[in-house]
Amino acid sequence: AGGLARMVGGGSGPGRGRSGVAWVRIWGDRVGRAAVRVERDVVVRARDGVSLVVDVFRPDGEGVVPVVASMSPYGKDVHWADRYPMYELVDQGEHMVWETPNPEWWTERGFAVVRADARGTGKSGGRLDVFSPADAEDFFDVVEWCGVQPWSNGKVASSGISWYAMMGWRVAALQPPHLAAVIAWEGCTDFYRDWGRQGGIYTNATEGWWRRQILPQLNGGGHASMPDDLKSRPLCDEWYRERTVDLSQVRVPVLSAGNWGSIHLHLRGNLEGWAHAASAQKWLVVHVGSHIDPFYADWAKELQLRFLRRFLLDDQQAMDGVAPVRLAVRRGREVEWRDEQDWPLPSTQWRRMYLAQRELRWERPEEGSVPYPASFGFTADQRLELTGPVALRLWVSHVADDMDVFVHLEQFDVDGARIPAIGPGGAATPVPMGVGWLRASHRKLDPERSLPHRPWHTHDEIQPLEPGVPTPLDVEIWPTSITLEPGQRLELRLLADDDNMGDLAHDDPDDRRSGRGATVHFGGEHDSHLVVPVIPE
What we know:
The chain is an alpha+beta fold. Helix content is about 15%, strand content about 35%. Helix 3 (about 135-145) packs across helix 4. The protein is globular. The chain starts with a strand and ends with a strand.
């Protein structure tokens, strides 16, 4: 890319030319792509007067256009190649930034793209307190600024991966008047259950993310430390609740995208978000692949474009033929795309797989027990598809008053070779087909919100185990898609830790409740079982 640079008036703040005006650059190329008008370091005033600094990319012309907006503490000026030079991105471009829409691709199709630094990071002022109410209110103010610019048609969408998706959910719940749609791609909606303390266990992967992604972008002192806050708050208190999306207030059209392999943070929130958002028009797609590549794939950009044309450009037919739910159903190492009408799938037959002596079976077993940790297997005699949420009722006794339960679902082919799921880093980071966690002292359920296939823990009090007494635990296993062919094996693994998960492990030495020495009980009055979503042929 190259072209003409010129100075124009407008705004004030850091990053200006000597005359105090914003730099605007017009980008084009030799193959005739539409020129991109770039305005760097434009200041938007938050409601409390803090300067929020944004970049604007828009088609070079006089007409009004819809806006795709995003905001994060990752640094709007950090080019993708500078952040992750080893990552070969599907989309390439002069203006590419981690996990955000490609400005060149979108402006070529008639959209403006606005990227903002979150307060306290990059060039924005103020104090960073991630996912606090101020974070969402700042994005509200950026959305409203976008909606009233002379080059805007008054319709704004939020879009992006991960953090950007989370902010999309949160700003939607605040209902800014100019927000017309949200693309939430692999985000989360429940800050406690999806991220901070999965099953009540501290998610210490936060610390590496904080060091790599956040600390380099801070522009001052006195900022809140999210890892410290998470460590000091074991129960779901008001701090977590104010960082959790009120889905009953999400009413704009939503395109929610999950990934079967994003079992560390993102999958649950996108499915729960889609299911419980109050939006009258909403679509769900669950794909496979790395955490990054699918967002930029041709099929995904086409879907995003259709969605935004429908709600930002009033193209009434743009989403015609797109099913409410589209799933990449996993068939061993392959996938089969399938359209559905709802989630969980309307055809689901909820069945119980009972734990027995080292096996899973459809029939209730005789009473027995095995030491914890333990594995239980099932070999299919015909094709068996399990697509949906999974729950585990587990009876345990322990010599101690607490324990952490780590649950993995694994699939093996007829030769006994593991069939791994594609993890966040692609095929190089294999993960289990399904995961779940629960700290036994957090077993208290909310009877109003719990479902047989999706227990809902309150996480509002500690209930110690009575040593030696069998106690039922209901473990939420995040949704999955597994297809067993005849002779293939499903294995339920009850683990004492998940240290094999690398960066996704819950291995903080100060936050562990060992399950070694515990006993798993089954049969008789101890009906340990999986609730599985059987999908008929």
